[in-house]
C-alpha cells in the first residue's frame, strides 16, 4: 500500500500548493499578504441574484434532489444568452448542460470521451484542467502554442500528421487563462474546417467571454457555420456575475457530446442546489448592468496595475481580456525561474502571484497576476515590489537558478 495509485502517479506535485503553503505560513505570522495568486473575485454577487436565491431557498420543494443536467428554466436561460450574445441558436433540451462550474464540466467531458492512450491537443501554457482532466482519464497530451495565429495552425497540422495514434480532441481557450490572448472568428473558422476534415472534437473554454476591455467582444466558436458538428463550448458564471463559490457553468453545442457529458454526470451528481440554479437563471435573464460594472472594475484595476508596476520598475503588459495579467519576470530575476521568484516575492514583498510554470512548461519565465485586489492594495503592492527589486541581489543568495 506504499505506492501511489495509478492515476495519482500521473499527476505531478501541484505547483500552486507550494505558494499557497507559504501564504498560509506568512499569514499565521501576521503578514498582510496582497494576494494576486488566485482568480477569485473579491466583489459581492449582485444583490438581485442573491435575493432570488433567498426566495427560492425558502420553498421546501427546492430542498430536494435537483436535475443533473440542470433545471429546464436554467438551460433555457443559457440558450437565450447564446442567442442574444452570439446569434447562436441552441436547443436547451439537447444542446445545453448545466455544470458545477466550467472546471467540472471539462473534467467530466474528458471522462466521457477519452479512452486510454487517446492523444489530446492542448495549448501550453494553459489552465491546468485542460491537460490534467485528460491525463486523469488516461489520455496523452500533445502541446500546441497558445497564440491563435498561423503558427498555431501549422503546429496543428504537424500534430495531426505525426501523432500516433491520431489526436481525438483539441482544447481551445480564448480569451486565454493565463495569457489573455483573444481568438478571432476567422481563426475559429480555420480550426473548424480542420476539425471536420480530420474528425477532431473541439472543446472551447469561453469562461472569460464577458471579461474584455476592447471594443469587440470575444466571439464564440459556435458562431462558425458547421461548428455544432464538432464542438462543445464551456462557460462559467464565476467571473461574469461574481459567483465563484456558487459553482455554476455550462457546456453547450454538439448534441452527441452533450449527451455523453450528461450521461456521465447522471452517475456522479444531482446537479447544483436548485436555488442556485434558479438564481443563475435570474442572473442570465435579468438586467446586465452588473456585468458592465464588473467589466469596468477590472479595467480600472488593470490600468492601475500596469501604471503602478511600471513606476516600480516592473513592466506589466496590458491584457485585452480576462481578469489576469501575464507578466514576464523582471530581467534581474529571470535566472531564478517563476516558482522561486514567486516565493521570494511573497517572502520579501508580501505579494502573492501565480508562477507561470504551474500552467505548463512554456509558462516558465512568467507569472500570472489576478486583478482581485482593489486599487489601493495594487498601489501598495507596487511599492513593496519596488523595494524588493532594489534589494534583489541580497535576496538571491539562497536561490538555485532553474536548469537550462
| CATH topology heading of the largest domain | Aspartate Aminotransferase, domain 2
Count of strand segments: 12
Discrete helix count: 14
Characterize the overall form. globular
Round the mean pLDDT to the nearest integer and report it.
Answer: 92
Major β-sheet profile = 7 strands, mixed
CATH class of the largest domain: Alpha Beta
End-to-end separation: 36 Å
**Structural class, from helix and strand content?**
alpha/beta
| Domain module count | 2
In CATH, the homologous superfamily of the largest domain goes by the name Type I PLP-dependent aspartate aminotransferase-like (Major domain)
What does it look like?
It is a single chain. This protein is α/β, with parallel strands linked by helices. Residues 400-404 have low confidence and may be disordered. It is built from 14 helices and 12 strands. Helix 6 (128-136) links the parallel strand 3 and strand 4 (140-144). A 7-stranded mixed beta sheet has the order 2-8-7-6-5-3-4, with helices on both faces. A 3-stranded antiparallel beta sheet has the order 9-12-11. It starts with 5 loop residues before the first helix and ends in a 9-residue tail after the last helix. The protein is 44% helix and 13% strand. Helix 5 runs parallel beside helix 6 (128-136).
Short description:
The chain is of the alpha/beta class and about 400 residues long. It folds into 2 domains: about 5-45 and about 290-390, Aspartate Aminotransferase, domain 1 (Alpha-Beta Complex), CATH 3.90.1150; about 45-285, Aspartate Aminotransferase, domain 2, CATH 3.40.640.10. The protein is built from 14 helices and 12 strands.
